[in-house]
Design a protein that fits this description.
Blueprint (H helix, E strand, L loop, with lengths): L7 E10 L2 E11 L4 E6 L5 H8 L7 E6 L2 E3 L4 H7 L1 E4 L11 H6 L13 H12 L14 H14 L4 E5 L7 H16 L3 E5 L3 H7 L2 E6 L2 E7 L5 H9 L17 E11 L5 E11 L3 E5 L6 H8 L7 E6 L12 E4 L3 H5 L6 H5 L10 E2 L2 E2 L1 H15 L15 H12 L6 E5 L7 H16 L3 E6 L2 H7 L2 E6 L2 E7 L5 H8 L5
Parallel strand pairs: 3-8, 3-9, 6-7, 7-8, 13-19, 13-20, 15-18, 18-19
Antiparallel strand pairs: 1-2, 1-4, 4-5, 9-10, 11-12, 11-14, 16-17, 20-21
Organism: Oceanithermus profundus (strain DSM 14977 / NBRC 100410 / VKM B-2274 / 506)
InterPro entries: AAA+_ATPase, ABC_carbohydrate_import_ATPase, ABC_transporter-like_ATP-bd, ABC_transporter-like_CS, P-loop_NTPase
Protein name: Nucleoside ABC transporter ATP-binding protein
């Protein structure tokens, strides 16, 4: 029997892939008028579970019930027909089309005039939920928060009674996150259900009614928000106590390691991306660069790491241009781990020596000393808690969290003077996040200059000694971390004078 008041019920649902049980006998219910949070480490099975609900995979065992009736969800279209809507972590919108045209895609409209009659329905929904966006604006002009609202409106237009939000605040300013929470509460008050997937425990405790925790594909437990706290949720997720206190010794800044002076650069489309950026990072400090997506961070990181030459101005690392052959090595923790961070076809050990394969102890003349390589890899795997621990494992098979540990192990080896960390904990669970934060603090207090680029304001405020905000390709504000005000920084990020 299913829970009589449940909207969605899973009973002993299992999904296997070659070599792994991604979802292992999971049973849970989501009730009408409930915000049900789903927590778990990277690789715990959250994404697979959502894929089962949205018809992207069939379960290998178990049953799914919708309003008490057993159902088989064979495709996203069937999920939508039932009333399940998915708002993905990265909005799936056609940038060149308007909001109205994007919302018309997939709707049962006429072929010749697909947007006819749709605009009034959009206006009604946006008024009801307090959304603000121009339906005639092209998507490329929208902020990340506006794109997310468009995805929510799309799901509601399709009749969603259960809305699945996957990491919904990962690219939002604090103000945009608060607006999203208002919408979630409004939906809950009207009897709709929300599955809220996030790694941010504070947000889960703020918005959820009940919280289910997955670990290694299994359901560890479901608890009411009133019975939960951060420490208990983290313990359930990773199976051990996790410290949320960052014992960060005071910075003792030394010489200037990175210096940008009046740097101008264009985007790949030829549009201005950096407009006269001045920035300095000293040895022994962490400079946190905050900003919403598309504010010029990518181009700035490429200039700093030597991947892009500025059109005007100068970029110097220890007094030399970063693309100089004689430059000191820059540790680069890139935004895209799989495409920029590793060579997926090489194994874990080979990826760990990409910078050093031609130098001792890994090189013996023209040959690579495989014994030395794999001995080094085993040491790094143990130190950085990479799983699986076999150094022969192909990098492409690692989860996102373990890929990030591999990249950190490689990039931090040899005490680099400058570390450029771009969204270093994006999508990571609390255990992996704890390790990354500890490593960055350790490196900075050991004398490295750290440029931390993140859209997560909590992370910036937790780690940085100074906070700078980039908006529209310019540095619009800079404050010491101890004087940083969340509201003021959030307004800077949104392009509002504070």
């Amino acid at each position: 029997m299913t829970e009589p008041n449940a909207l969605l019920t899973l009973k002993h649902v299992t999904k296997r892939f070659p070599g792994v049980v991604a979802v292992d006998g999971v049973s849970l219910e989501v009730r009408p008028g409930e915000v049900h949070a789903l927590l778990g480490e990277n690789g715990a099975g959250k994404t697979t579970l959502v894929s089962l609900l949205y018809g992207l995979y069939p379960p290998d065992a178990g049953e799914i019930f919708w309003q008490g009736r057993p159902v088989r969800i064979r495709s996203p279209q069937e999920a939508i027909r039932l009333g399940i809507g998915l708002v993905p972590q990265h909005p799936l919108l056609v940038r060149a089309h308007t909001v109205l045209e994007n919302l018309a895609l997939g709707m049962p409209r006429g072929f010749l005039f697909p947007t006819r009659g749709l605009e009034s329905r959009i206006a009604e929904l946006t008024r009801h939920y307090g959304f603000r966006f121009d339906p005639h604006a092209p998507v490329w002009q929208l902020s990340e928060g506006e794109k997310q609202r468009v995805e929510i409106v799309r799901a509601l237009l399709q009749g969603a009674r259960l809305l699945v939000l996957d990491e919904p605040t990962s690219v939002l300013t604090p103000q945009e996150a608060r607006e999203l929470f208002k919408v979630i509460r409004r939906m809950r008050a009207e009897g709709e259900a929300v599955i809220f997937i996030s790694h941010k425990l504070d947000e889960v405790l703020e918005v959820a009614d009940r919280i289910s925790v997955l670990r290694k594909g299994r359901l560890v437990g479901t608890i009411a928000r009133e019975e939960a706290d951060k420490a208990e949720l983290a313990r359930m997720m990773v199976g051990r106590q996790v410290s949320f206190e960052r014992r960060k010794p005071p910075a003792q800044p030394g010489e200037v390691v990175l210096e940008l002076t009046e740097v101008h650069a264009a985007s790949d489309r030829g549009l201005p991306a950096l407009r006269g950026v001045d920035l300095r990072v000293r040895a022994g400090e962490i400079l946190g660069l905050a900003g919403v997506a598309g504010s010029g961070q990518r181009e700035l990181v490429e200039v700093v790491t030597g991947l892009r030459r500025p059109e005007r101005g100068e970029a110097r690392v220890l007094g030399r241009a970063p693309w100089s052959r004689q430059r000191a090595r820059i540790a680069h923790i890139p935004e895209d781990r799989r495409r920029q961070g590793v060579a997926g076809g090489l194994d874990l050990a080979e990826n760990l020596i990409l910078h050093d394969y031609a130098r001792p102890p890994f090189a013996r003349g023209p040959l690579i000393d495989r014994r030395a390589v794999y001995a080094f890899a085993r040491e790094q795997v143990a130190r950085y808690r990479i799983d699986p621990p076999d150094p022969h494992t192909p990098a492409r098979l690692l989860s996102g969290g373990n890929l990030q540990k591999l990249i950190l192990a490689r990039e931090l080896h040899g005490e680099p003077p400058l570390i450029v960390a771009v969204h270093p904990t994006y999508g990571l669970d609390v255990g992996a996040t704890e390790l990354v934060h500890e490593l960055l603090i350790e490196q900075s207090r050991g004398g490295a200059a750290v440029l931390l680029v993140s859209e997560d304001l909590d992370e910036v405020l937790a780690l940085a000694d100074r906070v700078a905000v980039i908006q529209g390709g310019r540095i619009v504000g800079e404050v010491p971390a101890e004087a940083a005000d969340r509201e003021r920084i959030g307004l800077w990020m949104a392009g509002v004078e504070a």
